[in-house]
Amino acid sequence: MCPATLLRIKNLSVTFQDGNGGLEALDSVNLDLPECRFVAVLGPSGSGKTTLLRIIAGLIQPTSGSLQFNTPEGNPPRIGLVFQQANLMPWRTAIQNITLPLEMQGISEKDACERARGFIDLVGLRGFENSWPRNLSGGMAQRVALARALIQEPDLLLLDEPFGALDALTREHMGAELLRIWQARETTVMMVTHSISEALLLADRVVVLSARPGRLVRELDVPFPRPRTDEIRYSPEFVALSHDLRASIKEEPEPIPVARKPKK
Amino acid sequence: MAAIYPSPKRSPSQAVRTAKQRRWFMPVSLLGGLLLWQIIVTVSGLPAFILPSPVEVAVRFWDMLTGGRLLLHTAVTLSELLLGLLAGGGAATLTGYALAKSPSAERLMSPYLIASQAVPVAAIAPLLVIWFGPGMASKVLICGLTVFFPVLINTIVSLRGVPENLRDVMRAMRATPRQTLLLLEIPAALPVYLAGLRVGATLSVIGAVVGELVGSNQGLGFLINLGRGQYDTALVFVAVFGLVTLAILLYGTVLLVERRCLAWQSDPDKETSLL
């Protein structure tokens, strides 16, 4: 059911053309994503975390290197993607947003709605099926986005700082919700995040990228047994590991340009 | 959207009462306008061929209506309008889609498009009537030309304005171009596109009338010419009111479509009583 590796990333490098010699975003990244596991990617801003995710999602072409998906019979992988913003179609109600991928697969509206109900319950949106996105709070909109990704039964679920745009309390709550949802479904997940505690709470493995250009500087298997609860955030082991991880994420000090008086 | 200035708090019953009162505002203001008109006619003593009174216009209107001529001419103008709107709007939508997708095509075509807009339709209307005759074809063409530009511009702007992050959503789901068009581009472009169509619908009335004034033997524009020639100013008024009614009907129809299709963005704070 779960072979060792779903995705093998080899020597992945990306350089964005900017007319100035190019901006190197990722430099020879090698990474294996184990199937049915939750991998979190940490790193300072500008380390190419999001770029890595967008390459895997097929939104950006890498400059060099390769991605090998280990899917049955070599089918193209189904990928669910959740962005930092919910990115819902504002002209579709919550449930219509969730059924969008099924509509694209040609599944009848009735069957699609039936399947969507299960996911609405899973992400805790019952009673909001027919709300317009503009009437949903940030956390609820992100739940819709999560359901929209999950309903595709993805081989790989990519989460790009999915709670980054939420306030701190909602964010913590959504982290716990994601833990519950993932433990109920066990898909392969790769999540980009800024939050060390979010990574440790949710992930089986944490991967740390360096500042630009992004290189892999650390891989850590998270030792906490499952099922986990939100409570482990407060255990001494958790705190110690957070400190440890914090040390390996060096925000490279950006050189501060010093204003000089122009010479006359 | 938050108001910049907080609106004063009203209790629900107060709000209902003011809404009920407001319902009378429009008929009262219309009646007031008619009354003012009658007073001006009476006080100034202007002859009817310069300014007919509302009563005279109403009588003329009734004559024309019962004689069947008003309906005939209105029907002619309406069909010119609708055909022009269909042809001009349709051509503009297709061209707009192509230009929105291809900036180089836009560059290539833009001198002609801008020139087509710079030429006043009224100036080339006689030419078109010479070429296409005094019948319906020349009017439909003039009408279509008037409608073309606003619809074209709004089509391009609306398609270019489809948010990139929603395009990413479709790309990540491996959408085909057809799916992107149907599930993303059309619904996302609709608000701006329909606003352009609404402007186009109002302008199409101008196009049709210009065509009829230049040369025709039917239509409300023809009636205006006829009334002017015979010093039957009441008839001119009747035709003008007919045109206004057509314009309002068209505008209202597009607005109704907008309300229907754009329920997702309806915001009672933004509604105006301009229909």
Described by the principal axes of the CA atoms, the overall outline of chain B is: globular
Count of helix runs of chain B:
11
Strand percentage of chain B lies at under 5%
Record the strand order, biggest sheet of chain A: 5-6-7-3-8-9
Number of domains of chain A: 1
Range of helix content of chain A? 25-40%
Task: Work out the largest interface and the residue count of each chain.
Answer: A-B, 21 and 18 residues
The radius of gyration over CA of chain B amounts to 23 Å
Q: Give the distance, in angstroms, between the N- and C-terminal Cα atoms of chain A.
A: 73 Å
Task: Characterize this entry briefly.
The complex is a heterodimer of chains A (264) and B (275). Chain A is an alpha/beta fold and 264 residues long. Chain A is built from seven helices and nine strands, in the order E-E-E-H-E-E-H-H-H-E-H-E-H-E-E-H.
Key terms:
heterodimer, A: 264 residues, alpha/beta, Rossmann fold, 6-stranded mixed β-sheet, 3-stranded antiparallel β-sheet, 32% helix, B: 275 residues, mainly alpha, MetI-like fold, 2 domains, 11 helices, MetI-like_sf (chain B), ABC transporter permease (chain B), membrane (chain B), cell membrane (chain B)
Describe the structure.
The complex is a heterodimer of chains A (264) and B (275). Chain A has 264 residues and is an alpha/beta fold. Chain A has a single domain, classed as 3-Layer(aba) Sandwich (Rossmann fold). Chain A contains seven helices and nine strands, in the order βββαββαααβαβαββα. A six-stranded mixed beta sheet of chain A has the order 5-6-7-3-8-9, sandwiched between helices. Chain B has 275 residues and is mainly alpha-helical. Chain B folds into two domains: 14-44; 51-270, MetI-like (MetI-like fold, Orthogonal Bundle). Helices cover 79% and strands 0% of the residues of chain B. Chain B is built from eleven helices and no strands. In chain B, helix 6 crosses helix 9 (177-214). The longest helix of chain B has 38 residues, at 177-214. The radius of gyration of chain B is 23 Å and the shape is globular. Chain B starts with 11 loop residues before the first helix and ends in a 14-residue tail after the last helix. The A-B interface holds A 57-59, 76, 79, 81, 83, 85, 87, 89-92, 100-101, 103-104, 132-134, 152 and B 165-166, 168-169, 171-175, 179, 183-184, 187-188, 190, 262, 264-265.
